[in-house]
Amino acid sequence: LARLNFIWKGFINMPSVAKFVIKAYPVSGSFEYLTEDLPDSIQVGGRISPHTVWEYVEKIKASGTKEICVVRFTPVTEEDQISYALLFAYFSSRKRYGVAANNMKQVKDLYLIPLGSSDKVPHHLVPFDGPG
């Protein structure tokens, strides 16, 4: 990540679980609308099953009318790292992804997908079109 510039900095907040400062780094897709549309704080409104997310992503890809972009979130400080790990553990232990509750203009849906350092990127998101 040292060679990349972050495209967004703000909070991720899931009440009663964690709130922390985070930076988003580009991985794949077009980020123009994302950087314009993301609020100062992403509110995590709930959980969703991976199966539901991947069914939806496949429909989006098949339609050809919408774009999918992938970012990597990285906590800013050591204290943020602790909260980040709590949120990661919360989703991982429940085998669920997070869903942003913010109403955004251009970004229709935003999912937080917990991937461990040894996890493979879900095949639905590759090949990457960006810095990877």
Automatic annotation (TrEMBL):
GO terms for biological process: DNA-templated transcription. Residues 3-122 form the Spen paralogue and orthologue SPOC C-terminal domain. GO terms for cellular component: nucleus. InterPro entries: SPOC_C. It comes from the Eukaryota. Pfam families: SPOC (PF07744). This is PHF3 protein.
